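Priority: medium. Attachment 1 of 2:
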């Protein structure tokens, strides 16, 4: 049907971006805040876990090249996001970009899909965050019942005097030849820590965007400092033991074992696919465009700057880690802690846990921020109930949508196993990448004359590469994940045809939103 392709006029979107008053979002974020938001979203547990596994199983010391390859894949999508975020500086990210270029139906699909990335992403993080908090409290001698820190059915074992999530230390137990059945075990029923963590983040987001950004920046500083401490300790050790480091780096690219993806050139590509998900999150910066002081200038800086900083951190951490420890010994859940132990420092494990807690805390902030802003944009367009776009007169934040999203995410994080949540986040993110890259391509092909503060280079090559790489990553995901995505989108379509299409301001032909169907 032709009206399914109705597009929201760019001039209307720009008018919304320029609105002021107590019912609009407060523009309070500068480039430093935006870069911090990006780093907060990107650096989670990936750098603390995935580096070791990908190196040990697939790439060896050449994991450095895998990080470069994965970063290149993200750059294609990042360039497209940067153009849109500077050109259309409103909350909503890929949803708004899709509405302006591909039509309402595609915009609804991507808006519904973004719930997988942001809401379930925050729930995933909350689930993992609680486990690290429980473990760190145990290291500090504070005994807390694991019944408070896991989704229903999550198994915990008593390891070295405190409780650890069994799935998180299974490899370590295997290396130490410890049978999990020989340890005291218990099963949790409700993740109270995860629930309270999300609730606290939601309160901070309601209070104000500047306060939220400052809290996020503080946490980002801590987790970056953790990585810098690791680099300082590891770098000093390597300089003092160069022959040992060279031996660990040799061979730089282990020969292929005869199985695809196990070392050699194919291993670099396979490892890149694994660690690609350590970069996910930079797109969340674009949801804060309507709260940036100078979005035309600052949004590209925030998106590409955070991606560049994280890439440098990832590559240097990988280089130091493989210089400290032979890659064959890195298939453990805490490789950075193992690396610090080599230097003779015995508080490495606690340092990594602190870094992981801070990393996950800032990720929760950015994911909840992104989801509430997507709800805000969809509500303003009439696709969701009007209450979701109500702005608090004092705090100038979408407080009702933030509270609603926070409650739903807190319950999901408290009741859903972490593995199910994590699989859904990846496929939702990649679909968003595809829509944004396609949107840039469509705008250029259509010849739309719009002022662009940042221009994506090498169009159509850049968006095509973004689409191809993202589609390939989606293809590699498990069939069960695809089935869940289809079911989720089917639920979304029911809501669209039952409610959203009837209340759409564009479909109703409101004077301020003239219907476009071409």
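Attachment 2 of 2:
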């Amino acid at each position: 049907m032709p009206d399914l392709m109705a597009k929201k006029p760019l001039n209307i979107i720009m008018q919304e971006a320029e609105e002021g008053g107590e019912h609009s979002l407060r523009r309070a974020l500068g480039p430093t805040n935006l870069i911090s938001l990006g780093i907060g979203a990107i650096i989670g547990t990936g750098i603390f876990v995935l580096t070791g596994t990908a190196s040990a199983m697939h790439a060896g010391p050449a994991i450095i090249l895998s990080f470069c390859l994965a970063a290149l894949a993200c750059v294609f999508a990042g360039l497209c996001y940067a153009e849109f975020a500077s050109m259309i500086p409103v909350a909503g990210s890929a949803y708004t970009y899709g509405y302006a270029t591909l039509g309402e139906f595609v915009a609804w699909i991507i808006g519904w899909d973004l719930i997988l990335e942001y809401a379930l992403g925050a729930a995933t993080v909350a689930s993992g965050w609680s486990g690290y908090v429980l473990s760190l409290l145990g290291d500090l001698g504070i005994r807390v019942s694991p019944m408070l820190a896991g989704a229903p059915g999550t198994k915990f074992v008593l390891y070295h005097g405190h409780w650890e999530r069994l799935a998180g230390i299974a490899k370590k137990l295997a290396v130490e030849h410890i049978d999990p059945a020989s340890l005291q075990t218990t099963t949790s029923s409700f993740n109270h820590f995860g629930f309270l963590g999300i609730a606290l983040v939601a309160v901070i987001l309601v209070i104000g965007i500047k306060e939220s950004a400052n809290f996020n920046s503080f946490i980002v500083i801590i987790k970056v400092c953790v990585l810098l401490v690791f680099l300082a300790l590891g770098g000093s050790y390597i300089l003092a033991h160069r022959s040992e480091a060279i031996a660990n780096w040799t061979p730089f690219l282990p020969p292929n074992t005869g199985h695809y993806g196990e070392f050699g050139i194919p291993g670099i590509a396979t490892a890149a696919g694994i660690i690609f998900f350590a970069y996910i999150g930079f797109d969340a910066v674009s949801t804060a465009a309507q709260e940036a002081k100078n979005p035309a200038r600052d949004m590209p800086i925030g998106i590409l700057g955070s991606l560049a900083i994280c890439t440098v951190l990832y590559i240097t951490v990988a280089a130091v880690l493989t210089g400290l420890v032979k890659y064959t010994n890195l298939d453990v859940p805490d490789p950075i802690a193992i690396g610090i132990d080599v230097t003779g420092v015995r508080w490495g494990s606690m340092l990594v846990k602190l870094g992981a807690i801070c990393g996950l805390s800032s990720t929760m902030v950015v994911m909840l921020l992104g989801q509430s802003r997507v709800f805000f944009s969809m509500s303003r367009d009439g696709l969701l109930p009007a209450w979701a776009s109500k702005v608090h007169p004092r705090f100038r934040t979408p407080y009702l949508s933030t509270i609603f999203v926070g409650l739903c995410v807190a319950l999901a994080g408290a009741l859903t196993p972490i593995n199910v949540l994590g699989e859904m986040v990846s496929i939702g993110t990649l679909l968003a990448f595809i829509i944004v890259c396609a949107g840039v391509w469509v705008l250029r092909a259509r010849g739309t004359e719009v002022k662009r503060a940042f221009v994506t280079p090498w169009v159509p090559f850049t968006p095509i590469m973004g689409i191809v790489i993202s589609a390939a990553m989606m293809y590699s995901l498990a069939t069960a994940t695809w089935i869940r995505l289809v079911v989720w989108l089917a639920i979304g379509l029911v809501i669209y045809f039952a409610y959203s299409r009837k209340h759409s301001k564009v479909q109703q032909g409101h004077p301020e939103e003239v219907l476009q169907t071409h």
